[in-house]
Amino acid sequence: MKQTAVRILRRSIGGCSIGILALTGLPALASSTAPLTSSTLTSSAQVGASPLRPRQPILSQSERLISPSAQLIAVALSRRELRFGDTGADVRALQRYLSRNGLYPFMIDGTYNQETANSVATYQRIRNLPATGIASEETLKDMDFDFLPVAASPTVAPAPNRGTTSNPAIRTGALSIGSVGSDVTALQERLNSYGIAVVADGVYGFETQEGVRTYQRVQGLTATGVADPDTLESMGFTATNRYPYVAAVIADESQLETVRQFFENAYIDRNRRGRFINIGSFDSRFPAEARVKAAEARGFDSRVLYR
């Protein structure tokens, strides 16, 4: 039927046959010369064609990968102890926690391997827990994991003997990039004792800064990479107050990065009156006042504090 209609139109129209061929490709129009209307086109599209499917919503990549009921973060573990050889979602949740805190720079594969055990042991040393490398119930609770309810209550483990921690003295109020000397060596040795490997060369470089930052994350301290008084105290150090004159900018954490543009080793410090930004500690008043004037010249509210 289509071919007959095409031959007739070629004889009557002539050179316009190409345009007519495009129209005669529509089955409903092959035998009709009626003018095209919207209803005609609608009916023609329905003849010989599959029914129109409803449009599917365009999903983002995250929507395609994650169902509405998917659980992104494990909030409760099914086991109260994890150890070498264990596998599954509980191990994967543990590895994610260690990775977020800078202790597990490896693939999160849900297998409790030697790297996982070493990372757990490092965490335990930092938190003053028995460094067994086994994620015991006490260790998992210390990480703030919850547990799914079980039919029978587990046996409560006895409280560990945490021993005593020595309190070596640090002669400076804080240590940061550029610090050198025996205080830095003591800090580096303490990091190594936790399992955070750094070279104990007495120079506070990038490696030491990252080690301190890892320790601070695990301990819930502000992860600045500066061994400030809170961090040193948490590690068991005490200050001898050899540098009692402090050049201080009276501001809080929101101004710290701005202050560091001019005083790169600045850090958050505190005294009995509150918190401030320490831009230098000195053994006499004169250099402290000079540092304060330099800060005031840059528009900061600064003064000398005495410890």
UniProtKB/TrEMBL annotation:
InterPro entries membership: Peptidoglycan-bd-like, PGBD-like_sf, PGBDSf
SUPFAM superfamilies noted in UniProt: PGBD-like (SSF47090)
Ranges for domain Peptidoglycan binding-like: 87-141, 181-235
Name of the protein described by the UniProt record: Putative peptidoglycan-binding domain-containing protein
Lineage: Bacteria, Bacillati, Cyanobacteriota, Cyanophyceae, Leptolyngbyales
